[in-house]
Design goal:
globular, 9 strands, 28% helix, two-stranded antiparallel sheet, alpha/beta, five-stranded mixed β-sheet, Glutaredoxin
Length: 178
């Protein structure tokens, strides 16, 4: 389990149009927003990424860099990028499942064709959203076992505004006896 205010695992993936993403060298003013999505086969992911891409400029105004990433291949990520038509959204691909597990992501097995007729990969990671400080410590995390009911990006923008205005610390950091 990742702990707020503690270092996150290393994360380096290729992106479609923005070179190699390395979390430790991302250089965000305030935060990096990591949006782990299931892959091309997921119609909910496509809708979620469309909303994210619409709000990328708002995150950037707040000193937040954004990346969407999955364990999909480059080819499948290219197809997803074509579907959402969002050139301003960094899209990482090839996330190794052992790295996904280090990040606390759940791993699922294929159930064949999805409702949109696209084959699920044999293994793939489930969604998660993390907000990470420039020093790579965890600020916020939401990890899911299912594709449904994900964090709302507009709500996250409001939370970032509050956190920056009030210098609000990451919560959930206590690891002692209870």
């Amino acid at each position: 389990m990742l702990i707020p205010r503690q270092a996150t695992p290393a994360l380096t993936v290729p992106t479609l149009n923005h070179g190699t993403f390395d979390l430790s060298a991302d250089g965000a003013d305030h935060f990096t927003l990591l949006v782990f999505y299931r892959g091309l086969h997921c119609p909910i992911c496509m809708k979620y990424l469309l909303e994210l891409s619409r709000l990328v400029p708002e995150f950037e105004k707040r000193g937040v860099k954004v990346i969407a990433l999955s364990s999909d291949t480059k080819e499948r990520t290219d197809q997803m990028a074509d579907k959402i038509n969002a050139p301003g959204l960094r899209m990482g691909y090839g996330l190794e499942l052992n790295v996904a597990r280090q990040w606390g992501l759940y791993i699922s097995t294929s159930r064949g064709l999805t409702s949109i007729g696209i084959e699920e990969p044999a293994l793939f990671s489930e969604p998660a959203v993390y907000i990470v400080r420039p020093d790579t410590t965890l600020y916020y995390g939401a990890v899911q076992t299912m594709p449904f009911a994900r964090p709302n990006f507009a709500d996250l923008l409001g939370a970032i505004d509050f956190a920056l205005a009030k210098n609000y610390p990451a919560r959930g950091e206590y690891t002692g006896a209870v």
